[in-house]
TrEMBL record:
KW Flavoprotein (keyword) present: no
Cellular component terms per the entry's GO annotation: cytosol
Biological process, per Gene Ontology: cerebral cortex development; dendrite morphogenesis
The protein, known as: BTB/POZ domain-containing protein 3 isoform X3
Organism: Carassius auratus
Keywords, alphabetical: Cytoplasm, Differentiation, Neurogenesis, Ubl conjugation pathway
Compartmental location: Cytoplasm
Keyword GTP-binding part of the UniProt annotation: no
Primary role: Adapter protein for the cul3 E3 ubiquitin-protein ligase complex. Promotes the export of zbtb16/plzf from the nucleus to the cytoplasm and targets zbtb16/plzf for ubiquitination and degradation. Up-regulates neurog1 expression and antagonizes zbtb16/plzf, to promote neurogenesis.
Transmembrane segments: none
Any Pfam family: BTB
Gene name of the encoded protein: btbd3b
Length: 371
């Protein structure tokens, strides 16, 4: 732009498509070999690095985005990664969106994506979300799109901006209550569509629908089992409000959906379980629920409300406080390292554990996760 045959004949060259902080970050790298990135400037810096063919800086931007990826920003980063033709980042985004679909769909960033990305997400077979959540997210996006187009946010305009994408929402796979109290009363569906979907639920001869009628496959949860055997004794494993806890780390990003727990060794019984997941003392997930055990040595799943994102190479603490009158089974011959598919789990004892659980034995035999 300054020299050679293509030089511009102006004293001042304006670059309207690159933000000043991003341009400064690129200059700093070119002249000082320093990479200075922040969450506010990284996308604009990636754009500048791509435009001016600075591949090492572009790679650093992508690495920064991958490490800061979460359900809150995954949808907007998916949109940007496709624009910048970064397939690895695109794949990381899909992993987060699939596993934490409901959090991603409820995020503010979802409403900022372009129409093409919206259609990609709505057509995704592996979305781990209830269909009513998908429907409500699409309506939120439509409202934001109306505002972007500077048109009134009426029901008709929402349907108009959604266009054919509305048929990617698998409305017939909702529970009847969700449909009757949600989608059917939203006003977005035509009267004929609403009638046909009600007939789809109830009639022996079902009408043809433009909506996809097969449920999404979602994700299949995997289980990391850390004991080689289990046992029971006449005085173990007892619960008096004390905490069973174990620390673990992984070598790849995963999403912990819940724990598998042992149940009663004295016939069928019900337990109340408060499960918790922490990193360096900060609570990332917590849930209180009940589970019924049938007296067998099987494990029984207890779930978090949303899967919790786990980053590699750092230890997390899994804890449970159980309340139940009956003694339970407990694990033995615990392993410090377990290979589950492409993910390696490492276990170590937790100082939070006050009921005897450790690496070698105790409760929390399974971590249930998506990878």
């Amino acid at each position: 732009m300054f020299y050679g045959e293509l030089a511009e004949d102006k004293d001042e060259i304006r670059i309207p498509d690159v933000e000043p902080p991003a341009f400064l970050a690129m200059l700093k790298y070119i002249y000082c070999d320093e990479i200075d990135l922040s969450a506010d400037t990284v996308l604009a810096t990636l754009y500048a690095a791509k435009k001016y063919i600075v591949p090492h800086l572009a790679r650093a931007c992508v690495n920064f985005l991958e490490t800061s990826l979460s359900a809150k920003n995954a949808c907007i980063l998916l949109s940007q990664s496709c624009l910048f033709e970064e397939p690895d980042l695109t794949q990381r985004c899909w992993e987060v969106i699939d596993a934490q679909a409901e959090l991603a769909l409820k995020s503010e960033g979802f409403c900022d994506i372009d129409a093409q990305t919206l259609e990609s997400i709505l057509s995704r077979e592996t979305l781990n979300a209830k269909e009513i959540v998908v429907f409500e997210a699409a309506l939120s996006w439509a409202e934001a799109e109306c505002q972007r187009r500077e048109i009134n946010t009426t029901i008709d305009n929402k349907r108009k901006v959604l266009g054919q994408a509305v048929y990617l929402i698998r409305i017939p796979t909702m529970g009847l209550d969700d449909f009757a109290n949600g989608a059917a009363q939203s006003g977005v569906l035509t009267l004929n569509e609403t009638n046909d979907i009600f007939l789809w639920y109830t009639a022996a001869k079902k009408p043809e629908l433009q909506f996809a009628c097969q449920p999404r496959k979602g994700l299949t949860p995997q289980k990391c089992h850390r004991f080689q055997s289990c046992a029971y004794r006449s005085n173990q494993w007892r619960y008096r409000g004390r905490c069973d806890s174990i620390q673990f780390a992984v070598d790849k990003r995963v999403f912990i959906a819940g724990f598998g727990l042992y149940g009663s060794s004295c016939g069928s019984a019900e337990y109340t379980a408060k499960i918790e997941l922490k990193r360096q003392g900060v609570v990332l997930g917590i849930n209180l629920s009940k589970y019924f055990s049938d007296g067998s040595s099987n494990t029984f799943p207890v779930w978090f409300e949303y899967p919790v994102q786990i980053e590699p190479d750092t230890f997390y603490t899994a804890s449970v406080v159980l309340d139940g009158n009956e003694l339970s089974y407990f694990g033995q011959e615990g392993m410090t390292e377990v290979q589950c598919g492409k993910v390696t789990f490492q276990f170590q004892c937790s100082s939070d554990s006050t009921n005897g659980t450790g690496v070698q034995g105790g409760q929390i035999p399974e971590l249930i996760f998506y990878a």
